[in-house]
Amino acid sequence: MVVAGAGPVGMVAALRLAQAGVPVLVLEAGADLAMDSKASTFHIPSLELLDTLGIGDTMHEQGLKAPVFQQRERHGGILAELDLTVLSDVTRFPWRLQLEQNKLTRIILPILESMDNAEIRFNTRVARAEDAGDHALLWIDGQDEPISTEWLLACEGANSMVRQSLGFGFEGVTFPERFLVMSTSFEFRDAISDLAAVAYVNDPDEWIVLLRTPDHWRALMPIPADEPDDVAVSDARIQERLKGLHDPGSDYEILQHSLYNVHQRVASTFSQHRVLLAGDSAHMNNPLGGMGMNSGIHDAWSAVDTILAVRDGADADKASHLYGSVRAETCHQYVQVMTTGNFQDMQQKDREARAARDQMLVGLMSDPVAARDYLLKTSMLTSARESIARVQRELAAL
Ligand SMILES: Cc1cc2nc3c(=O)[nH]c(=O)nc-3n(C[C@H](O)[C@H](O)[C@H](O)COP(=O)(O)OP(=O)(O)OC[C@H]3O[C@@H](n4cnc5c(N)ncnc54)[C@H](O)[C@@H]3O)c2cc1C
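Above are the sequence and the flavin-adenine dinucleotide SMILES. Below is the predicted complex in structure-token form.
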């Protein structure tokens, strides 16, 4: 079994395969695991799944539990404060875990390295792949001979060479604005005393997401299309942006910043015979709501269920097709819809639509049934459980 890419999605898939006794080879282009800290929110269904792999305790030791999150107005205050502990009756993990994705991969790496049936090769870039019906072939940069594998799980992110060499489309949009992520040692709670660890600060002109991690605060902001990259990441402009939210009277200490292009794109197919796509190689979305990596982990789960079912006798082509169709449907009908809506809501410019959004959010505070429904949706709990269970149920019938 070959997993291309040692990002969070590939590493979760590899660990689960290895724990199930399947020999797994992970090929990673980088010299080491990526240091990117793009994702920092793990939702409930991901915590439930990862706990069954035996890494839940370590993740919780390194992460920060955030049971409460807020929807706020930049020039106003709290619109809604949502408390995930109301879901304690349906989950052992009624919170978001704030933990950077590069910590997850570093929790998994030593476990994989200690297993006899798992191997990870760095500096090994997959250049192209071929669907050979009952197996897959892939070529590594600098090597003439292909590797033949029973299954190829493509987890090499947005620029997936597997997806491209199989000719799958990747339709959608790239937004004209980019997203700037900064981390700072400044304690935002000194300035905004009622701030929750996760806060979506809505604004038609300059919305901002404030996220507390165990080490510092992260701030995520949009950069208008006409602002050059070098200006956006200059210290002067970063200071100006943060001081526009709150001016502490001196400069913010900026620990790290990155500028990202943002996409809403979905692959034309997630599977073809023995090639399965998972994570950003199959779909991308804006980060509002924290669903890209989480849904990629759910892909990885169903992909491994598919591989294991075929080893137990299920028809390979039908199983592969089932994986692709269910995960694509979940992506289109849930992840893409939710994240597109989140982006529209955060920056809503139409006064009436903004008033309706605010009314809905404020209403959640006095309507426990609506609040629970909102939490089940935004935590991905219902959609992920249903999608994973459907794949498992239908695989069992093959
Ligand atoms: C600012 C920002 C914030 C975000 N916040 C969240 C969040 O809170 N929650 C959430 O769920 N999602 C979030 N996301 C999305 C999340 O970061 C991605 O969905 C996630 O990284 C996808 O993981 P992946 O393993 O599929 O791909 P990647 O993380 O891109 O990993 C791919 C791996 O494959 C390797 N690779 C690439 N090409 C090759 C090749 N040809 N051969 C071999 N290896 C290769 C790369 O080096 C890398 O290690 C955020 C994104 C951004 C930009």
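The CA atoms of residues 254 and 298 lie 33 Å apart.
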